Amino acid sequence: MIKDIGSSKECTFYVALYIIVTTINSFIPAAALWYSGQILKIVENAMESRTVDRNLLFRVAASRTVCSILQRLSEHWRYSLSTIAQRRIKAHYQVHILESYARLDLPTFEDPVIQSQLSAAWGERAPVAWNAVQTVVTTAAMALRLVLQLSVLAAVLKGQRDGLILAFLTFLSPLMDWMKFRSYIHPSSVWAATCRNDDYIRMEGVKDVVLQSDHRKEMVAGNMWEHLISEYDAARKRLGDAAGSFHEMLALHKERTTLSLSSFLAEPIQEMPQIVFALRAVQYPASIPVSLASLNLIQSTVQEFAFQALHVFDKMFGSIGEAFHAVRKLYDIQNITNRVIDGPNSFPEDQQKVALGVSVEFRNVSFKYPGKDDYALQGVSFKIERGQLCLILGENGSGKSTMLKLITRLYDPSEGNILIDDRDIRTIKLADLRRATSVLFQDYTHFPLSIKENIGLGDPTNPRDQDMIEQSAKLGGAYDFVSRLPEGFDTYLDRPVQDVYSSLPEGTTTLFGRKVDYGAVRKFGGTSKNSKTQLSGGQMQRLALSRTFMRSLGPDNQVGLLLFDEPSASLDPVAEHDLFERLRELRGNKTMIFSSHRFGNLTRNADIIICVKDSHVQEMGTHEQLMKNNEGYAKIYSLQAKAFLP
């Protein structure tokens, strides 16, 4: 980590300055304490000689004041430098972390253990690397500060009557508070907590239904709110005082410690230094002024000393180890091994052949999703020739989408082999395979970027080619409605950086009855009331289709395989017809594989139809062949056709 930060010029300078200022800051309290001790000696000498060296008093007082000013300035510089260094280190490591995230394949990324490891490496507020640097520097500086203060304090208390006793008694109170705090925050045993109360679980579930926006449509349309409030109130009444979160219940449980023996001793121990002082004042009345000054100096210094000493103890036996453990996790994510192993061979050998499509063959392929016992596919075999249009038909959950995921090597089959142009798919470089493939998944997503970038990322080699983006939008049927949007192709579907408003909710009134309205502020700032652009399901699918077409329009003509998973699920009949007309124009130039649960426009035009049921291939062939077989395909096709016959 030190080498990594040291290699970054934008980080090294500010980290070095931070260390220097922090070190200087450690010397100032000891100097201030020494000057306070000198003032105490001046008072003591004045009591004995009845005279005061005014020049000395002025110099000492001025020096003590300068120490206070320097302390304040150094704290300010230290904070400013730490803020800059933190931002620089965070920016430096975010690229490293994002790269570690981005290179992971799907099964590896979905692993909960990997997710936990990635989350531990990503510090949103304080970067892991900066936290380690700050913890080490701060702990070392505090240790240095303690040694210096302890040395000065010992010199100041030397010769002071009962100085060590007063220091010890003053130290006892913060020590007891610290021990109580550690027992509360850092329990010594390993523990876990769960909730078995059905009423509380149900009450929290009802609260989430009401508060979370995901459930709002169903709740409002279903007229559920009165019932939900009634259920919540009934559960709350049954729970009574037990209707609290884990931390509330823990606090309630901890309340009994307020009547422990240590709680009764805390106040008397805190007053012990004053009691000892009072007893000594009775014995030596003439020394009261000096003793009072000594008591004040001892209490203020020892309390600060105790806080720092105990804090250093916590850091040395906790935070430093945790910080370096977190740093190790940060670098460990670079070494996470992907489940899908990259192939050694380039693809294709002849780019001109890929422009005419690729062949796809499954040989006795079976597959289980990670962590699942049931087969998503079992014993599947078929072959799609170069340039053919294939339609995979089946019910939801039959395994259609899984086939497309295996073809793109999002997963590897549990058994059997997949061949691309008669080559085992595992031997092909992943980047080459995916460069030759364009896919639209049923559960597609749109990125929190502009529409232009959403489409452009379909071809990462030409993501900003406006002509290609607009042509892809036309092929996907999205061009017309995107052009009508106020910001056109620059529109954000879901703006990743939200606008921030003051704490006064819009539509409410202030204390003096004035209505809260952000209209003028939005107009001045050029902001929108909504951070999301509302599009219909069909429009969203057209954008996803446009991104798929973007890959096939590249000037290098590298795509030979187009995969569409339920491409018309959200399209109206006219849009569906137009889409398939455009796709048919590509027939013979690309290998196209469609999955669907509906018999539609493509059935009569498909070169091969594969019928899947319960994870198995039930039958395959052309439309005419399958109709002659008069089995599952023919029966379902005839059943659906009856709906359109008079």
Plain-language structure description:
The chain crosses the membrane at residues 12-35. This is P-loop containing nucleoside triphosphate hydrolase protein. InterPro entries: AAA+_ATPase, ABC_transporter-like_ATP-bd, ABC_transporter-like_CS, P-loop_NTPase, Type_1_exporter. Residues 360-639 form the ABC transporter domain. The chain is an alpha/beta fold and 646 residues long. Among the domains are: 2-161 and 284-335, no CATH class; 198-258, no CATH class. The chain contains 24 helices and ten strands. It has helices spanning 2-6, 9-49, 54-102, 106-110, 112-121, 128-157, 163-185, 198-211, 216-221, 225-239, 246-254, 261-283, 288-332, 351-354, 400-407, 430-435, 451-456, 466-476, 479-484, 519-525, 537-552, 573-585, 623-629, 632-642; strands at residues 360-367, 377-384, 389-394, 415-420, 423-424, 437-440, 561-565, 591-596, 608-613, 616-621. The strands form two sheets. The chain has a six-stranded mixed beta sheet, sandwiched between helices. The chain has a four-stranded antiparallel beta sheet with strand order 2-1-4-5, covered by helices on one side. The longest helix is centred in the N-terminal third of the chain and has 49 residues, at 54-102. The radius of gyration is 37 Å and the shape is elongated. The termini are far apart. The relative contact order is 0.08.
